[in-house]
Design goal:
The chain has a domain of 159 residues. By secondary structure, the chain is mostly helical. It has 21 helices and no strands. The longest helix has 29 residues. Helices cover 61% and strands 0% of the residues. InterPro entries: Ankyrin_rpt-contain_sf (IPR036770).
Length: 387
């Protein structure tokens, strides 16, 4: 007879896979979560819900029908073990997991019941390589998708999570491919960005770059492109439109980051953003040079912001020099285009005459930096800026 929780957990760990009661328990719990409610006189969403009676029954099963003891520790062991087991057909007991289904097609009450017992909800499985957030949003965009995503984030789901096995786990990637549900996709995009998802992350931009390239033979990305193309019936022109939209949104994100971080003095956040962009490969150049209808490229926008700061905060010249050098150097290293007849050069003409020579000299330094991208010359050029 079990006399303590620690003994129960020890027995549980050793007996879990071969104990017939455990298998029977799982079957009963699954039957409760997915039982047929088609005859109930209520809405489809309510039919998928766990009632109080259902939850009481699950608790009773845990308390009375497994290994002869009660305790919350057992639930934690159960959910962590079986929610993240899968590798093949669900007909085999050892290859079943119910967590992806809870995130997608089960009612939110079932998810609410299970989440407190799960230690790491981003833990990837071999069969379901998508993140929990991806599962919550992909099942035909059910009415409670946003509520599920909010709940998953509250319990630690990472909006930037990428499984080692597949880029399919990156929620933003599918959200930006607006096909079947454009309005909900726009809301999903806003939701993910609000909760910290970033387009100008190296992983995302590299995934997009390979996704757009039909010659890419990267196994992970080839599978991603094939899966999404089949799911959304994408044509080549739609893929091109997808690429343009990603660049535009990434450029908007960069401009907003430039403005907000400079305005709030959050220079470390700005440095991190441009360093991420530097790590994003060829796609970074397309982002920093994306031409908005008004306001030019993000790089020209950055020059404009720095000019305004230099004019307004001349007493902080040393700090501004460091910030300007670091950020603009990073953007130029990403492939920012800057030449003497571009708008970025002209923005320095309208300032106070006492500052014109300094600013034009700085502008000329940038031009030289673009022309001389060798590392040593780049460092020398920026070290001499504002001198």
């Amino acid at each position: 007879m079990i006399t303590s929780i620690s003994e129960a957990i020890q027995l549980f760990n050793s007996e879990f896979q071969r104990n017939s009661q455990v298998k029977e328990l799982y079957t009963k719990i699954e039957a409760i979560i997915y039982k047929d409610r088609s005859e109930w006189p209520c809405s489809q969403n309510e039919k998928n819900a766990l009632s109080n009676e259902d939850i009481d029954e699950i608790n009773r099963l845990f308390d009375n029908e497994i290994l002869g003891f009660k305790g919350e520790a057992l639930k934690k062991q159960f959910f962590n073990h079986y929610f993240f087991r899968s590798n093949g057909s669900a007909s085999n007991w050892d290859e079943i997991t119910i967590f992806p289904q809870l995130c997608s097609c089960a009612h939110i009450t079932a998810l609410e019941y299970a989440l407190p017992y799960i230690e790491n909800i981003d833990a990837p499985t071999q069969k379901f390589k998508w993140s929990p957030l991806m599962m919550a949003m992909m099942d035909a965009f059910m009415t409670d998708s946003f509520e599920k995503m909010e709940l998953l984030i509250d319990y630690g789901a990472n909006v930037q999570y990428v499984s080692p096995e597949s880029f399919l786990s990156l929620p933003l990637l599918c959200v930006l491919i607006k096909a079947e549900w454009p309005e909900k996709c726009e809301k999903m995009y806003a939701f993910l960005v609000q909760h910290g998802a970033r387009i100008i992350s190296p992983t995302f931009l590299k995934a997009v770059e390979a996704f757009e390239d039909p010659q890419s033979r990267d196994t992970k990305l080839w599978g991603l492109r094939t899966t999404l193309t089949a799911r959304f019936n994408l044509e080549p022109d739609h893929l091109a439109q997808f690429g343009r939209e990603v660049k535009e949104k990434a450029a908007e994100e960069l401009r907003e980051k430039l403005y907000m971080c400079l305005n709030n003095g959050e220079y470390l956040k700005l440095f991190k953003a441009v360093e991420d962009l530097q790590s994003a490969g060829p796609k970074a150049a397309e982002v920093v040079n994306f031409e908005f209808k008004k306001g030019g490229t993000p790089f020209i926008y950055a020059c404009t912001l720095f000019k305004g700061m230099i004019v307004e905060y001349e007493e902080d010249e040393a700090l501004l020099k460091d910030v300007c050098n670091h950020v603009l150097k990073a953007l130029v290293d990403c492939g920012a285009e800057f030449h003497e007849d571009c708008a970025a050069y002209q923005i320095f003409d309208s300032v106070d005459p006492s500052l014109q020579n300094k600013l034009k000299g700085y502008c000329q330094t940038l031009i030289e930096h673009v022309m001389l991208r060798e590392k040593a010359l780049t460092q020398k050029a920026f070290a001499e800026a504002f001198v």
